[in-house]
């Protein structure tokens, strides 16, 4: 699973509206909440946001959205070029009412960078630029890479086993024997409680893990093997379907940004 090791940061994480910082691998922010909305853009690296509803992962070129009042924690994987934008309460209603992740296109990227790279020169300029960001997000489909957390103790026992070893190729029946529940019961719980199949949940967990490994320079083949795929082609297909680009393209984008 994604590492939970805490490392001392070389610089403090962004704390003010329209700010940015490079966050080192492994740094985490403990659970907290905000009175206003918050956008966090990972221009490079990976940001994982965890709430009571599960974990949202934002690889490079994604932006996370957390509405006001949601308690959440952040973890960073790879050196993350982090840009933080606070959204005033009166604008939050323009966006979805739950945490999510959105793809960042060229216009949205430039607007986010401008909000976090430069001081406001003309009064009201930042507010107008923020309105552009809101308009872009309202027109962008969610790409949440969301991994919901279970409440049922039997289901949580299974997901804990998978998180401890994402590459484990045990069947749901095997996991059920360890958790004290039947395969049929667990299959039903995955659908009713988590809204997805066992296969989909485990695949998403593996993609979370793969993103962290790729951001640290692992090869596509080594990442595929580590995350439980028997061959790189199957991994590439699953990664592309969930992330929206191949793992090779994802790594190339990371290298281009760092250079």
Automatic annotation (TrEMBL):
Record organism: Nonomuraea montanisoli
UniProt KW keywords: DNA-binding, Repressor, Transcription, Transcription regulation
SUPFAM superfamilies attached to this UniProt entry: Homeodomain-like, RmlC-like cupins
Record region (Disordered): 1-29
GO molecular function: DNA-binding transcription factor activity; sequence-specific DNA binding
Identification of the protein by name: HTH-type transcriptional regulator RipA
Signal sequence bounds: none
Residue ranges of every copy of the HTH araC/xylS-type domain listed in the record: 156-253
InterPro entries hit by this protein: Homeodomain-like_sf, HTH_AraC, RmlC-like_jellyroll, RmlC_Cupin_sf
